[in-house]
Amino acid sequence: MTSCFSAQTLVFPPRFHRRGSPASPPRKFRRILCSSLSSFTGESNAAPAPSDLVSTKKTKGQRWSQTFCDILDDAVDRHFTRYPLHPSVDPALLLVGNFAPVDELPPTPCPIVRGSIPECLRGGAYIRNGPNPRQHPRGPYHLFDGDGMLHSLLLPGGGADASHAVLCSRYSRTSSPVVSRSFSLRGVHGIARLVLGMLRFLAERMNRTEGMGPANTSVSFFWNNIFVLGETDQPFTVYLSPEDGDLLSTERRDLGGKLVKGGSVHHKQDPVTGELFAVNYSLVPPFLTYYCFDSSGNEKLEVPIASVLQPSIFHDFAVTKHYAIFPETQLVMDPLGMAFCDGSFIRCDTRKTSRVGVLSRYAASGSEITWFDVPGFNPLHICNAWEEGDDGGVVVLVGSSSVNLQHFVERMELGHGHIEMVRIDLKTRIVTRTLLSVMSLGFGGVNPAYQGRKSRYAYAAISDFPPKIQGVAKLDLEVAAQRRDCVVVRREFGPGCFCGESFFVPRGEGKDLDEDDGYLLTFVQDENEEKSKFVVMDAKSPELEVIAEVELPRRVPYGFHGVFVSQSDLKRQQKR
Ligand SMILES: [Fe+2]
After folding, report:
1. Where along this sequence does the record place binding of Fe cation (predicted)?
2. Of the chain's two ends, which shows fewer C-beta atoms within 10 Å, N or C?
3. What pLDDT is stored for residue 257 in this prediction?
4. Tell me, what's the pLDDT at 451?
5. Residue 255 burial (10 A CB sphere; 0-12, 13-18, 19+)
């Protein structure tokens, strides 16, 4: 990692001159040639290849190929990039404060400075994924783009080591940083980078099983493995050592050989049957494919859904007892707009009507799906869904819908969200919508034991200042029937303090436990003190009381989704 990344404020190295800089043509040429040849000689001033990076040992042919690609890369940067950069893709504006990347961190002890870790969390680990670019972006960079880094906190398991947790930060082991120095999919520059990335992949003769995606979005535990998920590539597995808390990337997985194109990062696991459900959305038909796997990982269903007529983003979906539910939002993939209108690869199609598709959970064909128009309903995340009525004829969907979806990519600070409940009567086709709170809320989850079943409580991120999150809100969904604001309690961390998505962990297993009897886990950044901490909140308490706090040895950048893996699940991991 270059030194410019270790500082809070990015400093552009001399090689990253912008168009119009006073460098003379001969100096420009020398710089391009030297920087390109340096990669051949191994003296690159870009980030040195970390020990776990794939393809670090190159043949002579591969080094020449890399040099050739570096020359093309500089040419792309020089001739296809429009300066000044759009603010949404300017790394000088984006990679600052706690969005700036950090180096890897080996397992490091962290003191528990407040309270004690609850019994159900002991010996388990909270793991959170997020973008953390290895190299300084050479051109446009979006906050969704960086290489995935996992931050794991192994909690004490009792006994002599009960006084401290262990923090570890590791990159996912993918070829992403090798094939691309900058990957923002916007305009002609984005296309040129994409082509160049493919060229690098081919020229350096990388093992296709290593993948190109940044794997930076979510992390999940199923089939006795920790899976790292990104939408542009297959999942990766990692192994978290229960002994020392270190993270080891293990292999790229394709979920039964089917998810070869990546897909949704929000797979659903039935808490009763153990079945896993996934979707893949694609730039080419079929634009949406639905999968079902049994609890052992064997594929049961692969259902292409031909009635999706344009390439759309299906970031999340839901599965109830009898149905799979697919919200088709106005967020679409637009390669032509990217090529000819200097637009983003992902954009909001305001002419499109949002709709929700309901398909039998074990449908034999995608033609069985029924679509219901729900104009303006653009949920990027689903809190939960279930069925109501004597015959299960009403589907209820609770999700965080983006209010200003047209700003989702380019003006994230305007991208407010609201939690909505949508009820779909499958017989009468009547759709009713209820706004659950006036607060700006995003993400959203429930007690995992209630996934796909009726749940009373949901937990959502408070996002008055997107993309930052200043706290968590607890919603009582039953209040919706009384036409009252469903937020019953909120926990914020004070001025200048921001957190991540809060993950709910039940206090234990058993039917005698209340649904909200458990804990909310998240990382918190105090931007005033530039310090990070891990907090445990009591989800049942009247004020979401913080009952335990772990002081972290260095900051944890803001990121996306996390998961808690219990001590017993850590022991069940398959170390490949
Ligand atoms: Fe997500």
Report:
1. 266, 315, 381, 561
2. C
3. 60
4. 95
5. buried
Spatial CB neighbours of 512, under 8 Å, sequence gap ≥ 6:
none
Expressed in angstroms and rounded, the spacing between residue 91 Cα and the centre of ligand 1 is 22
3 located within any domain? no
pLDDT at 266: 94
Give the span between the Cα atoms of 242 and 259, in whole angstroms.
29
The CATH number of residue 455's host domain is 2.130.10
Q: Which residues contact 253 (CB under 8 A, 6 or more apart)?
A: 225, 227, 234, 235, 236, 237
Rounded distance from Cα 452 to ligand 1 centre (Å): 17
- How far is 170 from 287, CA to CA, in rounded Å? 33
Q: How far is the CA of 218 from the centre of ligand 1 (A)?
A: 7
Cβ count near 20 (within 10 Å): 8
Helix (H, G, I), strand (E, B) or coil at 332: strand
Determine the pLDDT at residue 177.
55
Question: Could you tell me if 185 and 344 are in contact, meaning their C-beta atoms sit under 8 angstroms apart?
Answer: yes
Distance between CA atoms of 334 and 336, rounded to whole angstroms?
6
| Token pair in block for residue 140 | 């446009």
Q: How many domains does the chain have?
A: 1
The pLDDT score that the predictor gives to residue 448 is 96
Please indicate, yes or no, if residue 42 is contained in any of the structural domains: no
pLDDT of residue 27: 40
What residues make up the domain containing 541?
A: 74-572
| Tokens 């049942």 belong to residue | 540
Locate 395 and state its tokens: 């589907």
CA of 265 to the centre of ligand 1 (A): 7
**Is 180 inside a domain boundary?**
yes
What's the gap in Å between 533 CA and the centre of ligand 1? 23
249: left (phi over 0), alpha (psi -120 to 50) or beta: beta
Q: Report the pLDDT value the prediction gives residue 159, as an integer from 0 to 100.
A: 63
**What pLDDT shows up at residue 404?**
81
Phi and psi dihedrals of 277, rounded to 5?
-125, 140
User: Can you give the pLDDT at residue 224?
Assistant: 92
The residue ranges of the chain whose pLDDT is under 50 are 1-56
Provide the pLDDT for residue 52: 40
| 513 CB burial (10 A radius; 0-12, 13-18, 19+) | middle
How many CB atoms neighbour CB 70 within 10 A? Answer: 23
Q: What is the dihedral of CA 372, 410, 148, 303, to 10 degrees?
A: 20
